Amino acid sequence: MRWRVAGGVGAPLAAAVFFMLPLITSSTGDIRHHGTSRSRGWRAQPSSDVTANNSVSNVTAQLGGTAYLHCLVGHLNERGQVSWIRKRDWHILSSGKFTYTNDERFQVLHGEGSEDWTLQIKFVQKRDNGTYECQVSTRTGIVSHYVRLQIVVPEAFILGSGEHHVDLGSVIHLICIVEKSPTPPQYVFWYHNDRMINYDATRGGITVETEPGARTQSRLTVRGATLKDSGNYTCSASNTEPASIHVFVSEGSNKMAAILRRNTSAIHGITSSVTCLLLLSSVMVHFGLR
């Protein structure tokens, strides 16, 4: 797809708390384990099977997005409960569909008759990174599944160095890359100094083409560059910090003249220094002889 326009408690105590809760689950209940799928979570395994216990899956979410941690539990008694624990501080986040945290970003999603007990975390932050435990209490003990949540921070950069030089009347062509982004940015805006130019009909000759994906690319084209087009250009995506580059527009003859002036000044400076040294040497020799 392309966008085109012109113009981001300790374990024993936790276990004891769960046993104190009025939890009743089927002794034949099972936890379903889906391997390491990022999107689904668990698949069928009997709870009495030790291979189902302590299983691990991985979930990746980007900073500011929403993370879904899945836990599929089959044959759960109507009075049974499934609980989520945050491992870094052993905080009990939920029991059944009830949450036990003041952080409103956390919520348990479970539809009637569904085996999926999903822990939803909105507007994820860097501190949400870590392991979460889904616990199910059975007559023979506790069965656990762990979800490792990784928070990634998208990065944006413009190809090239910090400066871009173009000749008067030529084309300014800039490419912005947004990477480490599981979800493509909703938009990519380009700014010339403080003015957004994606839809600049007044200037004309401006085209922005954006190809969203795991590595989003946004291309800015400014045709017929004038001296007024010099300045700072910024690529601003919806899910990351902006990236900038400075563009210099100048005439080729002016650039050559500037280079010649610099060289002439340097040569003149060297000549002056040599002349001064010769005069000084002559004076010293003259007074030395006397």
Describe the overall structure.
By secondary structure, this protein is an alpha+beta fold. Among the domains are: 55-152, Sandwich (Immunoglobulin-like); 155-250, Immunoglobulin-like (Sandwich), CATH 2.60.40.10. It contains two helices and 22 strands. The strands form five sheets. A six-stranded mixed sheet has the order 4-13-12-7-8-9, with helices on one face. Strand 17 and strand 18 form a beta hairpin. The longest helix is centred in the C-terminal third of the chain and has 38 residues, at 252-289. The relative contact order is 0.15. Residues 8-29, 33-51 and 257-268 have low confidence and may be disordered.
Unreliable runs:
8-29, 33-51, 257-268
Average pLDDT works out at: 77
| CATH-defined fold name of the domain at 55-152 | Immunoglobulin-like
Distance between the termini: 90 Å
